[in-house]
Specification:
Layout lengths: L4 H8 L5 E2 L16 E2 L3 H13 L1 H19 L1 H21 L1
Helix pairs in contact: 1-3, 3-4
Length: 96
Amino acid sequence: GGSRLKILEALAMKKAVVSTPVGCEGLNVFHEKNILIADTPEVFASRTIDLLEDKKLREQLGAAGRKLVEAKYGWEAISKSLCKIYDAVVKDRKEE
């Protein structure tokens, strides 16, 4: 494994991304919606070439990736998640 932050950083910059299934594991990404996923070297190369040759596809995936990062991984989304966790912890402590 490795850090998935590289993928999130690229998506945040509206860059189209090609990844392996392992590379994007645990991220809320979907093939052909906001990322391209390839499970063999041949498919990875083919999808990369597709992006190089198709500006519209690059732009669509880039915009969708940025939207995903803002909705799921941006500071506002993260702070809401943390507040829910804190509220649950406080509630559990009060019930003890």
